[in-house]
Structures are given as structure tokens and as C-alpha cells.
Amino acid sequence: MPLPDPSLEPAIRDPKKLRNTALILVGIMVLGGWLITLSYNQWSRTQAKDDRPAVVYRITPERDLRMLRQDGKTVDLVDLRRHVIAIQVMSNKTPQPAEISLQVMKRLATNRAADQNFNLVSLMLDPEPAETLHAALASTASSLGATLPQWWVGANEADTLQKFIYNQLKANVSPYQKDGQWIYDGSIVLIDKNGHIRRAVVPQQHGGSPYIATFDFAEAAEWDANKVKTGTHHNNVGQLEILLNQTIDKLLAEEFKP
User: How far apart are CA 98 and CA 25, in angstroms?
Assistant: First the structure.
């Protein structure tokens, strides 16, 4: 092993200089951490104030749904562009998943009857022969109190309708039958004037990313059954309906962009 070069002198460490260097490095780290925290807090406050409804997806005219309506006319969902739409899926044979959301739809129809820029659409899953479908839709519309032009009740052939519900409305399950009962998502879906599916944004009180809420009233009812608190004077179903109406108001205030 080679021996140290005797001409080299050992380095003399200056404790004062070392201490000053260490203090400078610590100061840089503290300042950097403070700046990062400051920037994050500013970003969080900005995010927390942004409660615009979240854009989930856009239903293009090429992927639109054509349906037979309760008046016997064939119409397209895109015909309602420039309008805010509350749309939900239902079944007369298996009403349970949509029971609460249908009650909400009825209140929306009553409370917003004077607003010509707001429409409701109910899509009926129950298969019917072509010759009896019009009568079935008319009967369902009558039982719901769904009157035109405000509230459409429509259907298409089963495969087309199921694909549209899952792929375009972004339902959490593609409708299917099991043991003679329909399994489907009865949530209310909001579509803005430009065909975008929108969801509510709930800012967090202490900053951070906001909560994106779907209008799943069956789930809200389960939370109530499990005694989950909302932090307000309302139960989960009532609070979700308030949030739904607030979101509709925000969408109605937005402009149509052709």
C-alpha cells in the first residue's frame, strides 16, 4: 500500500468557518422549506375557493342518444343543447335504486317549472315490444307527473340504452338483470348547456384537493341509515339535494359556447 506523500501538509480545519458554513446551509434549508410551504398554502387556498362544477365528460353529437319519447316522437338528447339537463335511469319493474332520485326529480320539476333552460330526462330500462313502447312511456310519464316540454321520459332498445348509460353517462354499473331484477345506477346526472357531464365540487375547509360529488341519493340514504353525520342541520339526502340545486344554479349561469 503506498505511503502518504510527506510533502503534503494535513488540512487545518477552522471551527469558526465550519460553524458558519453549517449555519448558512441550515438557513438555506429552512428558507426553502418555508417557501415551499407558502406556495402550497397559496395553491390550497386557491383550490379551496374554486367550487365550479367539475367537468367529467362531454357527450358529443356522434355519441348522442336517440329515444322514443312519451308523446310518441323520436328525439335526440342533443336537441336539448343550450339547456341544463338532470337525467336519471329508472325501472318500473325494479324501482328501488331510483326511488329517492325520482322524488328529487319531481321536486326539481315543480320548483323549476318556470325555467325554460332546465329539463329533466328519465330513461326507462324496462324492455317493451315496439308496438307497446309508446303506451308504456306515456303511462310512466303520467305516473311521474312528467309533462312536456320540461320532463322527457324515453327509451331505446335495451343494448343501445345500456351502452349509453355506462359509456356516456358514466354510471358506476352497466345496467343488467339478475334474478328477474334490474341492477342499475339510479343517480341523477347533470349535463350542462354544452353537453358536458358535471359533478359538484365541495371545497375542503382546511385546504387541499376538493371533494368531487356524484348525485347518488341511494348512497346518501345508506349513509343516513348508518348515522353518518354531515356537519350541517341536514341529513345526507337533504344535503345532497341542496348541493344538486346549487350546482344546477351554477350551470344555468354559464354561457352556451357553440
Answer: 62
Residue whose C-alpha cell is 348547456: 193
Q: Which residue's C-alpha cell is 310512466?
A: 140
Which residues have CB under 8 Å from 12's CB, separation 6+?
none
Cell output for 159: 343494448
What are the residues whose beta carbons fall under 8 Å from the beta carbon of 77, sequence distance 6 or more? Answer: 59, 64, 65, 66, 67, 85, 87, 121
To the nearest 10 degrees (0 to 180), the angle between helices 236-253 and 217-225 is 150
How far CA 93 is from CA of 98, 121, 142, 182, 221, in Å, comes to 11, 18, 16, 8, 21
How would you write the pLDDT of the chain (258 residues) with one tens digit per residue? 555 455 545 555 566 666 666 667 666 665 555 554 454 444 344 444 557 899 999 999 999 999 999 999 999 999 999 999 999 999 999 999 999 999 999 999 999 999 999 999 999 999 899 999 999 999 999 999 999 999 999 999 999 999 999 999 999 999 999 999 999 999 999 999 999 999 999 877 666 778 899 999 999 999 999 999 888 899 999 999 999 999 999 999 999 987
Residue 122 dihedral angles phi and psi, to the nearest 5°: -115, 130
How is 93-121 classified by DSSP, letter by letter?
SS-GGGHHHHHHHHHHHHHTTT-TTEEEE
Q: CB neighbours (10 Å) of residue 161?
A: 20
pTM as predicted: 0.79
